[in-house]
Amino acid sequence: MTALTGLVAWYKPETLAASYANGDPISTWADSSGNGRDLTGTTTTRPLAAASAINGYMAADFDGTDDKLWSSSFTVNQEPYHFYVVTQIDVYKSYNQFLCIDDDPAAPSYIGGWPHMFAYPDGSIGCFIDASSFYKTEDTMAGDQGLAVGTPTIISASSFLYDESSTEAHTRISMNGGIAGSGKGTMAASGTGYIGLGVAGVSSALDGKIVEAIITKGQGRGVDTPWIEGYLADKYAITLADGHLFKNAAPENAPTTYNATGGATLASDARIERLK
Predict the structure, then answer these.
(1) How many independent structural domains does the chain possess?
(2) pTM score, two decimals?
(3) For a tag on the chain, would you pick the N or C end, based on fewer CB atoms within 10 A?
């Protein structure tokens, strides 16, 4: 068995379906990583559970005004983070934001050196770190279409590569496994952080759905990106970009089980063998 190490948090539709019926406000989205970073919502700002929203799976449906879910605080180190989210926007709007890490859930800000992932009004995807914009650009793999309203899409920030000799972070954004953009910015110093979904801040509340989100960390964890994207594509019937490792076949060793230290067990050693 091969361990997918560096798992920070994992939010799955199965945990929603175990607790909520269609239309219920979501108070808690349990973290399946074993790290206890459950997402919580309060009062009227809770997204609603949407049954069979994406390929038969329940999703969290955000209203585009103030719906949001946040984790409890945890220590964030200045190291690479890798983000994966399956989202479906319902309308084009300014900064449909689906996933971030921030130090202040009451007033999240993209200028503080924390990663925020979002879609622009034209559907192009991007990320802010320290007010430096990493955005979707025309590419032969991803195309130049951006997110289409009503279409489930895998968005990956495959890594935030921290240069240990400075505070500079580098990243690559992908859409359905196709390279969509890259850039760099100044990462915030280590401190207290929170995970946010459908974040309401800087006029960026998500109007759409999130069915699954995964966060990992570690200098070498970007190598897991094609396997995670392949797992998500197979699960949600999403077509991956041309040239992707799992364009025509699902990975044999998608993450299947989770342990208390935040690792995910893979079904075989095929991942390592294919990398040799």
Answers:
(1) 1
(2) 0.87
(3) C
